[in-house]
Amino acid sequence: MKHFFLATLFLAFTSLVFAQEKAPKSPHLTVENKGVKVVYGQPSKRGRVIYGELVPYGQVWRTGADQATEITFSKDVTFGGQKVKAGTYTLFTIPDKQTWTVILNSKLGQWGAYDYEKNKSQDVLSVKVKREALSTPVEKLTFTLPGNAVVFEWDDTRITIPVK
Question: Are 89 and 124 in contact (CB under 8 A)?
Fold first, then answer.
């Protein structure tokens, strides 16, 4: 009986270790609300300096991990004050300490922002939004859709883009 218990304990431990190794560091998530859907890879802070280092200021960022973030509008909307037709777009940002540029691009299936310059001609819009500093860091990049905006938070930053 003792050997059976030890063997069972070993198998349980081995399964747990294997499961943890297989869990993605940046899971892919989908959030939806009122005709807006965002699909993104969710990176974690994990003790790193995010803005200005991991995500450099002044450079195009995929606004997530792995494949570039995509946003879908089920009907025509106003996004950051600009009209956008219903459809799916790649969402990029250019971080800055005070003001961020949010970009919608019609080229889908982009991996990261590596080919952004090549696909820049397919930008649909570019809007500037104020960066809001958070007093408590957010560990995982999180998109929310409160109904009248697209909001994302990570580390010490919140970005809000109005949607009507």
Answer: yes
CA angle 12, 18, 24 (to 5 degrees): 135
Continuous segment of H or E residues that includes residue 17: helix 2-22
Enter the pTM of the model: 0.84
Q: What are phi and psi of 151, to 5 degrees?
A: -125, 135
Give the contacts of 63 (CB within 8 A, at least 6 positions apart). 40, 69, 91, 92, 93, 152
- The 10 Å Cβ neighbour count of residue 11 is 10
Count of residues making up the chain: 164
Q: What share of the chain is helix, strand, coil (3-state, %, to 5)?
A: 15, 50, 35
Render pLDDT for 105-141 as a digit per residue (tens, 0 to 9). Answer: 999 999 989 999 999 999 999 999 999 999 999 999 9
The sign of the torsion formed by the CA atoms of 106, 124, 153, 57 equals positive
77-79 and 87-94 beta bridge pairing: unpaired
